[in-house]
Amino acid sequence: MVTAARQPEVGSSGNRNGYRFPPGMQRNLLWFALRKFRPANPIFLFQHLTETYGDIAHYKIGPHHIVFLNHPEYIREVLVVQNDNFIKERTVQRTKMLLGEGMITSEGAVHRAQRMTAQPAFHRQRIGEYARVIVEEAAQVRDSWHAGETRDIAADMMRLTLNVVAGTLFATDLREEVYELAAAINRIMGLYNFLVMLPAAEWLVHLRPPGLAAFVRARNRIDAVVYRMIDARMVDANERSDTDRGSLLDLMIAATPENDDNARQSLRDQVITIFLAGYETVANALSWTWYLLSENPECEVKLSDEVNSVLNGRLPAFEDVQRLCYTENVLAESLRLYPPAWAMGRYARNDFSLGDYFLPARTTVLISQFITHRDPRFFPDPLRFDPDRFTPEGKARRTKFTYFPFGAGARQCIGESFAWMEGVLLLATLAQKWKLKLAPGHRVEPQPLITLRPKFGMVMQVEAR
Description:
Blueprint: H1 29-36, H2 42-53, E1 56-61, E2 64-69, H3 72-81, E3 86-88, H4 90-94, H5 96-99, H6 108-118, H7 124-144, E4 150-152, H8 153-168, H9 178-190, H10 192-197, H11 201-204, H12 210-235, H13 248-254, H14 263-295, H15 297-311, H16 325-337, E5 344-348, E6 352-354, E7 357-359, E8 364-367, H17 369-372, H18 392-397, H19 416-431, E9 434-438, E10 446-448, E11 452-454, E12 459-464
Parallel strand pairs: 2-8
Antiparallel strand pairs: 1-2, 3-5, 4-12, 5-8, 6-7, 9-12, 10-11
């Protein structure tokens, strides 16, 4: 059991500042990474820390203290109990180059106001209305596929969920721009590690060296689409009935002061944040789900049997989500093994305690869903794909903060219920007509960028049911 520690007296730990650090690397990570790991993939580092030092491990990058956690009590302590002492850490702050002051990067009163404005768009009644759009988009994709063809399902899922988020949360048809938008987002994702590691990238971006010039071009393409969405909704706001003004974008426009010179920029930051979070997470979850079903045909058969039994040949509706239990369990197990939000970090404002350890302000705390979700203490035989872990009985046995694909605590993803419904409906609609098999020889490797993407796409063969 992890217990909170009393603050030690100065000097009591043998450290002249009175701090007591967890076990960890004695050498600076910069040296260790060059000798032991591929720096571009921190999952290897996290696995090493857990295997070598246990539930809490300490290391440094230059002068900066970093602590990695892999125990539900430690995780709860940071995300819930001591939440007020922590803000988003450096790599998240670096994403402001793309996201600005959106809901992911903002803090304090700004974040709370943004969340309050967006909340009605995720009310159960609104989410039910979104189901029709979700199924219509999925049915169009389903009917465009052909038996025997080979497709990059990761790219297909990205375009599908882009259209879903645009049509539901932002009441916009992206049909003509979805390929351009997807290409721009993919370009930025490919530059993610470069942007995170490059010193002073926020300042260098104005000079536009080669890598940053590509980032700026891609960001400008995304901005053009986002501003078109904002301007279109603002121009014809008075021409729509009240029932047509309930999208998330409409709610954000209504909450923006008319005479605020920064209103358009603020709307842009909020829209692009929710847009990227809304489509990227579900697209990756579905890509990994199709792969896992391909590798586990007995689970694929059970999912198909449930879809056929519940839907009996018709398209799914919102009311069917609660009946598609095994379909949801399949998605949940996929999110366990390949969580799109694969890690999260916090930055301490003040000195703080974790268990027997006392740590200084400005310490970065890292947590990885990818690591915790695969811990055999919490999920026996963790690499086995087993949707039955998520039956009501299985969930009742699970320790809190061992499964958190959408985060936890005060900053848990506001769109979680939307994402679950969207994932189940898309999976069921597509699975009615098709099953997907991994193309022979296709290499599958997770790539931890902002989200956990399949590094080489997900090339699969389409087979009719």
